[in-house]
Automatic annotation (TrEMBL):
It comes from Nitrobacter hamburgensis (strain DSM 10229 / NCIMB 13809 / X14). The keyword Nucleotide-binding applies. Signal peptide: none annotated. Coiled coil: none annotated. Keywords: ATP-binding, Helicase, Hydrolase, Nucleotide-binding. Gene3D superfamilies: P-loop containing nucleotide triphosphate hydrolases. This is DNA 3'-5' helicase II. It holds the Pfam family AAA_30. Residues 444-494 form the UvrD-like helicase C-terminal domain. One of its GO terms (biological process) is recombinational repair. One of its GO terms (molecular function) is hydrolase activity. The keyword ATP-binding applies. It comes from the Bacteria.
Amino acid sequence: MKDDEVADLLRSEVPLVVIEAPAGCGKTHQGALFAAEIAARNKRGRLLILTHTHAARSVFADRIQSGSVAIRTIDSFLVEIATAYHAALDLPLDVGRWARESGKYDEAAKRCRHLLEGSSMVSSALADRHPWIVCDEHQDASEDQHRAIMAIHAAGARARFFGDPMQMIFAKSDGDIRRNVERWEGLKALGAWGELEHPHRWLPHSPDLGEWVLEARRTLRDGGIIDLTGRLPRGLSVHFAENSASVPNKAMSMTAGHRAPISALTRGDRSLLVLAVGTERVEHLNSFFGRSMPIWEGHRRDHLTALVACVRSASGDLGLISDGFLQFVYATTARFSASSHGNRLKVQIAERCSRRARGATIHLQTMARHLMDEPDHRGVARALHKFTELVRAREDGFAEVTLDLKAEIRDAIQIGRFADVDEGFAEISRRRSFTHPQPAPRSISTVHKSKGLECDNALMMLCDKQSFSNSRYKRRLFYVGISRAKRSLALVLSRNHPIPFLTI
């Protein structure tokens, strides 16, 4: 379908329109233009854009500057509804904190869905507030999220759904993916639908790479095999290497011969996004590259969430606070462990820093005193601030320590400026949502966290059977990875453990 035909369909009088949009084919451009036009002429309410990731939300926010458009993640939108009706839904007053800490966003969505389907007054009020709803990446919607939106649509809101079943990477089992694809096909049957098919992302630099990615998408979707033995398109390179670490699932190492082409790709200052499957593989690559590139942490702060929960439940208990502090530091740094630093810090706390010290122990005593003086989030923040100063100054005992998750550490320090830990966490999270953070020009990311992003050059490694089996889910994960780069894509493949859906 041509781009102008899709644009006309979006602007038609049809109440429900579905646009199937492969990665890089102009979905965000179409959606943003449509939303801006509708918002400019809309007489009532605000057009609502719902995304599934904060990265996608940031992209829309950068392109649309209008007070007549509301942009939310679908989780935050449903949490807002649940908060307004928390008593009726038998939920705590702070639904956002409850969902975040307990991981119960799905439960909040379920209760919202029942509310919206059962109360025409509530769904009609939302339809009046948001007469147009644009749903981005709707293939990732859960059954409850989907039905909640459909209830608002049934109450009068016009709906425009964008999605790509081949980017369905949050439903991991083949059964879940099959059911979600069936729901997507059913949604297409409820209204008009079209498909974007022009690979804009790769123009003007690598059009051949763009065409190859679209063809690879069709092959992966249909259960076929991608042939990498022939002539490759301009912009795509394939390299072979094996992980020679003695315990491959705990580290990444390569022979000099295997590493040489990878070193050539990462040499210099050109922008580069290194992609891997899973946080453990990202940590291994971080060490493999000598921590020369930061890890893209995305929007979520899982370790900080755990630290905040610990501070709240500790209620000033110094032992619990120090344990929470250490667990956070262990998770966000390297070469700071219980045996190297943590146990010694706990000894200083137990002895109230009563003994004379020298070298690294003096620094540990300074950190310990912060925790002892204020056994709460403020003491934790001050101890973390001192810790980062020691690392950056390469002081005795801290010269080898590295800060891996710098954004998460920085946010933990900033929370110390607030009187209340929950208030601080909520405000820091809100600021992060509206500042639209992006990866550094050279960084390492999981494929999951790269979804919704694009980059000039990407290096995906190590592509082996462990990372990409022949499941529906892994085929989709591979597709998301290969579709990020606009100019060049390098794949590092394993011959010993080949990917089942590649011919090499």
